[in-house]
Amino acid sequence: MPLCLRVSPCVPGRRAQPCERTLTPEHVTTNDTQDQALALMESARAARAHAYAPYSRFPVGAALLAEDGTVFTGCNVENASYGLTNCAERTAIFKAVSEGRTAFRAIAVVGPEDDLPCAPCGACRQVLHEFGAEMLLITPAGAHDPGGVVTTTVGALLPGAFDGASLPARGGDA
Ligand SMILES: [Zn+2]
After folding, report:
1. For residues 59 and 32, is the Cβ–Cβ distance under 8 A?
2. Rounded to the nearest whole angstrom, what is the distance from the C-alpha of residue 29 to the centroid of ligand 1?
3. For residue range 17-37, what is the model confidence (pLDDT) as tens digits?
4. Is 67 a catalytic residue?
5. What range does the domain containing 89 cover?
6. Is 64 a residue whose pLDDT tops 50?
7. In 10 A of CB 116, how many CB atoms?
8. Rounded distance between C-alpha atoms, residue 7 and residue 5, angstroms
9. Which residue is catalytic, options 89, 113, 130, 134?
10. Is the pLDDT score of 105 beyond 50?
11. How far away, in angstroms, is 125 Cα from ligand 1 center?
12. What does the pLDDT average to over 51-73?
């Protein structure tokens, strides 16, 4: 199961430490990917500052790394109707797709507390999965590891997902 990796705080020479879960080779990080994960998390924290969350007072930020290296950020955008609220992860995805990107490597997500994990909701897991089960999901590791992050995959967060393969074959593409 491709889960999960703990990336320790940025300490020169310190290697990422795997957690107790089994790692697949492609999830063993290098210092470069560790730095990239931490940088993406910083972008998510910056995006959180723009959250429009007057009802929940639960600001969330996300930073999405596209395959070409572009980072798209997002925040939650609430609405008085509640149901029309859009989460930070989906804001980032919709921004990216509307600008021509559909291939992504990773998304970092942070809630109100810098060092607490913030799990994507079910709706966001579904939307993220549309763009790849192998996309990495990065979130803070927890208060026990300030500055650290944990990484998993979208596929691990949504096993048995409903996706395009679940639909009957169609003629032509939309
Ligand atoms: Zn969500």
Report:
1. no
2. 27
3. 433 333 333 444 567 788 899
4. no
5. 5-158
6. yes
7. 13
8. 6
9. 89
10. yes
11. 7
12. 98
